[in-house]
Specification:
There is one protein chain. Helix content is 32%, strand content 24%. By secondary structure, the protein is α/β, with parallel strands linked by helices. It folds into three domains: 202 residues, FAD/NAD(P)-binding domain; 111 residues, FAD/NAD(P)-binding domain (3-Layer(bba) Sandwich), CATH 3.50.50.60; 99 residues, Enolase-like, domain 1, CATH 3.30.390. A hairpin with a 5-residue loop joins strand 17 and strand 18. The longest helix has 25 residues. The N and C termini lie far apart (65 Å).
């Protein structure tokens, strides 16, 4: 008899969900985590980053407060206070995740686990364990380039632990992580230079909304260096960094942050010994039931490189546990997954972009609302929001919904249900507006 019915490697969002649900069904579950319980999202991703986003919003809110009658005589930001409070909250949530596992009788091993076969593992402390099923949920990590002086740069892992706020920071990348930290540091008062090797950022989002974000970001003072690459980094005697560039002038900075993609964590896991096959991006290849090429070994989350989002990993973990331990088989639907960029202002999207819809459907109708939020009008802030509905011209079904503006991600979560449910433009038109809100624009487009 095996030591466990299920053994999970990695206590991130997907692994914790699978372990908890499988244990609730009565399975004997063990989980190994070599760093901290909670994974990327809780420890060094979504949660601490969103708290920094909240902190950054006060920069503009305090400026706007005067037009609403508030007298704020002094505006001063203390990075150390926010940093330490965020890290304390991360610690609290880590404890809550640990409590969730222990309360469901999941055995936690705070050490590395390595596969020694399709049903066996070796723990760093020397113990050998066996399991009927093994789930790999080790996530992914930031990809760092092999350039001279890379040891002077940081990734999104280290950014939450900076000793002091950089006066000038170079951020390399064109994805959501790069754009989010560009907005955060700009609001904190840093000079931000965003470097991208092409002239396209946020390529999976609707181009019209991306263009709007770039326009607003330029007005805020973010300096974009497109079609540029970073060659090497040198630390000067005064501690500052000299960044040698191709495609633009060299840059002097206090910090360099790389946000150029994430790589699945598959190294030294014993995958070859267990017969687990990898794909082109070094991801664990799995089928629709999250099963790898080894019939007893499964994988969920970023290590499979399907959609690298926390809610997707959680759903995959839930589907795995329901299917193999709850006798309730189902598979994750990867269509119409909503996503957001917590930039300043934030951007949110679900379904097909206008370009994708035209390529796929041919006949497309597009409805937009381009407006200034009421709060921005009174504050004298010339920053416009843009909402966009992409509609199948043949069926009138809404196939895409895209927004940029205050609270766009909060609004989109509910609106995404309508896109998932294949509602038509007429269903939006028939819904009474909730006034005065920004969200009412969704049902007023004609």
């Amino acid at each position: 008899m095996a030591d466990f019915d299920l053994f999970v490697i990695g206590a991130g969002s997907g692994g914790v969900r699978a372990a908890r649900v499988a244990a609730a069904y009565g399975a004997r579950v063990g989980i190994a985590e070599e760093y901290k319980v909670g994974g990327t999202c809780v420890i060094r991703g979504c949660v601490p980053k969103k708290l920094l986003v909240y902190g950054a919003h006060f920069a503009e809110d305090l400026d706007d407060a005067a037009m609403f009658g508030w007298d704020i005589p002094q505006k001063r930001f203390d990075w150390a206070v926010l940093r330490d409070n965020v890290l304390a909250e991360v610690g609290r949530i880590e404890g809550a995740y640990t409590e969730t596992l222990t309360s469901h009788d999941v055995t936690i091993f705070h050490e590395r686990a390595v596969l020694t076969g399709p049903n066996s593992l070796n723990l760093a402390g020397g113990r050998e364990v066996s399991a009927d099923k093994i789930l790999i949920a080790t996530g992914a990590r930031p990809q760092m380039p092999q350039i001279e002086g890379i040891e002077h740069a940081i990734s999104s892992n280290e950014v939450f632990h900076l000793e002091e706020l950089p006066k000038r920071i170079v951020i390399v990348g064109g994805g959501y992580i790069a754009c989010e930290f560009a907005g955060i540091f700009q609001e904190f008062g840093s000079q931000v230079v965003l470097v991208n090797r092409t002239d396209v950022i946020l390529r999976q989002y609707d181009q019209q909304l991306v263009d709007r974000l770039v326009q607003i970001s330029l007005r805020k003072g973010i300096d974009f260096k497109f079609n540029a690459t970073l060659d090497r980094i040198e630390r000067r005697d005064d501690g500052r960094l000299h960044v040698a560039m191709t495609g633009c002038d060299d840059i002097e900075a206090d910090a360099v942050l790389f946000a150029t993609g994430r790589r699945p964590n598959i190294e030294d896991l014993g995958l070859e010994a267990a017969g687990v096959e990898l794909g082109e991006t070094c991801q664990i290849k799995v089928d629709a039931d999250n099963r790898s090429s080894a019939s007893s070994i499964f994988a969920v989350g970023d290590v499979t490189d399907r959609i690298q989002l926390t809610p997707v990993a959680i759903r995959e973990g839930q589907a795995f546990a329901d299917t193999f331990f709850g006798n309730k088989p189902w598979q994750v639907d990867y269509q119409c997954v909503p996503s957001a960029v917590f930039s300043h202002p934030p951007l949110a999207s679900v379904g097909l972009t206008e370009g994708e819809a035209r390529n796929r459907l041919g006949s497309v109708k597009v409805y937009t609302s381009d407006f200034r939020a009421m709060k921005n009008v009174l504050a004298g802030r010339n920053e416009r929001s843009l909402y966009k509905l992409v509609v199948d011209g043949a069926t009138e079904e809404i196939v895409g919904l895209h927004m940029i503006g205050p609270d766009a991600p909060e609004i989109l979560q509910a609106a995404a249900i309508a896109v998932k449910a294949k509602l038509k433009k007429a269903d939006f038109d028939a819904t009474v507006a909730l006034h005065p809100t920004m969200a009412e624009e969704l049902v007023l487009m004609r």
